[in-house]
Structure formats: C-alpha cells, structure tokens
Design brief:
It is built from 13 helices and 22 strands. The chain has 425 residues and is α+β, with helices and mostly antiparallel strands. The protein folds into four domains: 92 residues, Rossmann fold (3-Layer(aba) Sandwich), CATH 3.40.50; 56 residues, Dna Ligase, domain 1, CATH 3.30.1490; 123 residues, D-amino Acid Aminotransferase, Chain A, domain 1 (2-Layer Sandwich), CATH 3.30.470; 97 residues, Glycinamide Ribonucleotide Synthetase, Chain A, domain 4 (Alpha-Beta Complex). Strand 15 and strand 16 form a beta hairpin. Helix 7 packs antiparallel against helix 8. It is globular and about 60 Å long. The N and C termini lie far apart (48 Å). The relative contact order is 0.13. Bound molecules: adenosine monophosphate (AMP) and glycine (GLY). The site of adenosine monophosphate has 12 residues, from strand 16.
C-alpha cells in the first residue's frame, strides 16, 4: 500500500512510526512532516491545510490511504475533497468533524442524544451571554465556538471575569471568528481523562484511555498548553467507568451523528470529566490527541493499518485490537517560553536512539544544512517509554530526557504524578 499521513507533530510521528512498521505498507509519505518523521517516511513539502495540493499529490502518487492527523484540515473538508477524487481517507468528513469545529454544535448534539455534559447555552449576542453567565455558580466556563488552537476555553473564577471573557471573545475578537459565537457553561468538578474509539460510521471499537497534563508547570500549574506529557492507561478509567463512557457517551454520539446524516468515520476523542455522578463529556475531538497518540502507539500491539482501513471500509464490526498491558508515559520537551512565543533554531544534540521500550517522537524539528537537528516551534520532542508500571515507564522516559543536550528546552519533571500516587497506594 501507498499511504500519506497529513501533519507535522508528535502525533503524526507516532502514527508514521506505527504505520511504517506494518508489512502492508510499501511507501509512506508525510506532508509536511518533520526531521524525526523523515526517518520513517518520505516528507513532502505541502502544508497540512493546503487541501488542493494534498489532493493533487494523492492523485498523482496513486495513494491508497490518506491518514489525517490534525483537526484543521478535517474541519475544512480535506476528507470530502479526497473522497470526491476517489481517494480513501481516514478521518471524518467536514459535516462530522463539526463536533470539534463547533463547540455549540457538539453541545447541541449531546443535548439531542441525552449525552451527559455540563449545563450550557450558546450565544451570538454578548449581552445575553453575560446575563446567563450570572445565573451559573462559580467558576463559570466561557468557550469560543470555533477552533482556537486549544486556547478558546476560559475558566472564570468570578462573574466579572466571565463578563470580561465574553467581551474579549465576542466584541474584542480575541480568537477571530471562532469567538463570534460562544458557549457558556457550568464547571465540572472531577478528574479528567481522554478516551478514544474508532468508528466506521456505524460500528464502534473502543481503544484505550489516557491522561494528559495541560498546564505548563509542575504540579499542574501555570497556563494551559497543547499538552506537556501523557500516560496510558489512565487509572481513573476503571472498567466500569469505561463501560459507562461507551454506553452513555460514545455510542449515542456515533448513532446520533449517523441518524443526522453525518456518519463519523475515524477516531472519536472524548474529553471526559469523571465526576461524583459518573463520566460527563467535556468535549469531542475528531482526531487523535497529541501527546496521547504517542503513548497509545507504543501500547498498541496490533498492526494499525487494518484498523484504519476498517474504519474507511465500514468493516469495523467484530474487529479487535490487541494492546500491551504495560503503561506508557510521554514527556514533552518544549522550547523555553512555550506556551508563549518561542525562538526557533536552537540546536538539539544527543537524541537517544530508538529502543524496544522507548522512542523519542519529534513534534517540531528540522534538520539544518549541516545535518543537525534544530527546534522549531513550541512543543519539540515527546520522549516516550513503556514500563511494567507507570513509575517504571516514567523513570525510563526521564532517563532519556536527561541524555538530551538542549539548553534552550525544558520539560515538566512530574508527568504521570497522579497515576504514580495511585500506584503507591
Ligand atoms: P478544550 O480546549 O475544549 O480542550 O478545554 C480545555 C480544558 O478546559 C479542558 O481540558 C478542561 O480541563 C477544561 N474545561 C473545559 N470545559 C470545562 C468544564 N465545563 N468544566 C471543567 N473544566 C472544563
Ligand atoms: N492533548 C489534547 C489534545 O490533543 O487536544
């Protein structure tokens, strides 16, 4: 098979690494890829949001399957375009990707299909949004409706803060058009987890749970990021909780989307809050998580390619995936300054070679003219290891982190602390 992966982050490196290991694959391309991905795939200089060029490349190179990593091309309709050109693609069409592209759509879908989620209302008018926010207990959550690169959610400790958040989104256009419409909702108390399931539009195959660390600083402090590290499985996802997530959240969403003419093919990523009343949906995403995908790919024993094909072909019923029972931990190394502005081009040396139980995925790297790896962007490496326990996986990951020579980089030193605290009990 000839496969094209779209994207350039750690998620796409993990996917390429896993896909390249499949005996079914003859040729693997990645657009645009990065310096780490170049070791397992041929990188093509086409941006992940250049729908026309990606489609033309897939036609010219007679690609058998396109695997779309990030949300933006899905929400823009890359899969629709590829399908119209007769090319098979893993990922939802535009009308199903709207579960991530519009938070208001996602919340209304949850309401229509009785999926437990935070009490909310959506608004096109700032004054009405402010009036509703005042009726909610504190803290209040204000969300820009559209894609805002993970920054469009503000947890407001006072009603004044909520009004200011609404004002800056709807009147100040802090997130551009993404904030023309907002969702105002109640705050859910509990422990957060990420849950992933594959779907072919009709059938659903649960994958595994993971937890990521969104805050930049140790002890889960400081501003939100795309994710500073992750681990899988998430101990909070007991078999009972996973069963409830499947029956109360994932299956009703897949069935509901299909009944509304928006069949969802691809991977459904549910952000869940495990509350005292059980699991509640925070949000849906239409793609793998980053860095959750890195830990999932290390834990996946089965060939990933037949699973991706089954989603595209509608043959996911009776499909099974095998997973290593081990835990996986990934530690993200970022350029100093992240999640604020960062300087590109610092040199990274001594990136450890791959081992059976550990791999360094690249999230934002380039190889310079002298062949040396440089950091480009905020999140740069995802150092990922497997272990019999979370503690063992964490120790291995930090052992590799400490071998890397990159003075301009930093990482959190406590990834997986919650799971390790539980293991210790
Ligand atoms: P998002 O950008 O939609 O992933 O949301 C960012 C983060 O905000 C989530 O991962 C949660 O930690 C938090 N969050 C969003 N909505 C709520 C809510 N209703 N209650 C508590 N936390 C929330
Ligand atoms: N790590 C969270 C996300 O990919 O959205």
């Amino acid at each position: 098979m000839r496969i094209l992966v779209v994207g350039s982050g750690g998620r796409e490196h993990a996917l390429c690494w896993k896909i390249a290991a499949s005996p079914l694959v003859d040729t693997l391309y990645c657009a645009p890829g990065n310096a780490g991905i170049a070791a397992v795939a041929e990188c093509v200089a086409i941006g992940a949001e250049d729908l026309d060029k990606l489609t033309q490349f897939a036609i010219d190179q007679t690609i058998d399957l396109v695997v779309v990593g990030p949300e933006a091309p899905l929400v823009k309709g890359l899969v629709d375009k590829l399908e119209a050109a007769g090319i098979r693609a893993f990922g939802p069409r535009k009308n199903a990707a709207e579960i991530e592209g519009s938070k208001g759509f996602m919340k209304d879908l949850a309401a229509r299909h009785n999926i437990p989620t935070a009490r909310y209302r959506r608004f096109l008018d700032a004054d009405n949004a402010k009036i509703f926010a005042r009726t909610l207990p504190l803290p209040v959550v204000v969300k820009a409706d559209g894609l805002a690169a993970g920054k469009g959610v503000i947890i407001c400790a006072s009603h004044g803060e909520a009004e200011a958040a609404i004002e800056s989104m709807m009147v100040g256009h802090q997130f551009g058009q993404a904030g023309d419409s907002v969702v105002v909702e109640e705050f859910l108390e509990g422990e957060e987890l990420s849950f992933f399931a594959l779907s072919d539009g009709t059938h659903v195959l649960p994958m595994v749970s993971a937890q990521d660390h969104k805050r930049v600083g140790d002890g889960d402090t400081g501003p939100n990021t795309g994710g500073m590290g992750a681990y899988s499985p998430a101990p909070v996802a007991t078999p009972e909780i996973e069963a409830r997530i499947m029956t109360e959240i994932i299956r009703p969403a897949i069935t509901g989307l299909k009944s509304e003419g928006r069949a969802f093919k691809g991977v459904l990523f549910a952000g869940i809050m495990v509350t005292k009343d059980g699991p509640k949906l925070i949000e849906f995403n239409a793609r793998f998580g980053d860095p959750e995908c890195e830990v999932m790919c290390l834990r996946l024993m089965s060939d990933i390619v037949p699973a991706l094909q089954a989603c595209v072909d509608g043959t996911l019923e009776d499909f099974a995936l095998r997973w290593y029972p081990d835990s996986a931990v990934t530690v993200v190394m970022a350029t100093q300054g992240y999640p604020g502005s960062t300087k590109s081009g610092s040199v990274i040396r001594n990136i450890p070679e791959e081992r059976d139980d550990a791999t360094v995925f690249h999230c934002g790297t380039k190889r310079n003219a002298a062949g040396v790896i440089e950091a480009h962007g905020g999140r740069v490496l995802a150092v990922t290891a497997l272990g019999k326990s979370v503690r063992e996986a964490q120790a291995k990951a930090y052992e590799l982190v400490d071998q890397i020579d990159w003075p301009e980089g930093f990482c959190r030193r406590d990834i997986a602390w919650r799971a390790i605290a539980r293991e210790g009990k």
